[in-house]
Predict the 3D structure of the following.
Amino acid sequence: MEDVPNILDITSSTYRINSLDGIEQWMTFVNKSTNKTIKYIKLEMEFYNAVGDVIENQIGGYKSARLTYTGPLEPGTSSGQIHWDAIFYNPTFNGTIHFKQIVIEYMDGTSITLDEYIADYAVTHFR
């Protein structure tokens, strides 16, 4: 995986469990591109329990959460801290999150899709 370019940097990722067992997520992105402005970053994430199994959202039964960041995010710049409120509900969540997919759409109409096998490798600080 050493040949996968570092096109996105997640410089911080934190979560908090609210009083209703909802997961709130915060992230900060840096556009690693030298010449493309990011329009959208679409993240699909899975959540795990203490024994390593993927868990379901207790509202809707989904096994992943989809988050969208809306730019523009110029090359080499940071998004600042982004917050999503109550993205997933399950009291058995143990703090482990895995990216299933990251889609980066650019202002010029092009996009890059990172599947679950390379998503974690393409973001330099999330590992």
Observations:
- The mean pLDDT is 86.
